[in-house]
Amino acid sequence: MKTSEIRLMSTEEIKTKLSDARNELMNFRFQVVTGQLTDTSRLKITRRQIALYETILRERELGKNLEGGK
User: Would you give the distance in Å from CA 59 to the centre of its chain?
Assistant: First the structure.
């Protein structure tokens, strides 16, 4: 999913996606340990997705703080 598409989502939708991505990462980690995951690049992709969601949420949080301070 592109950054521009994520920015159009509501904050609650992003939080839901973030939670889903974290659960997916946990499952991938278990699969790596048990030897079931063959495509280990999914770990990297999921970690980056989580970082993107968190970054956009943080930007929104800082934006609200700046607007309230004016």
Answer: 14
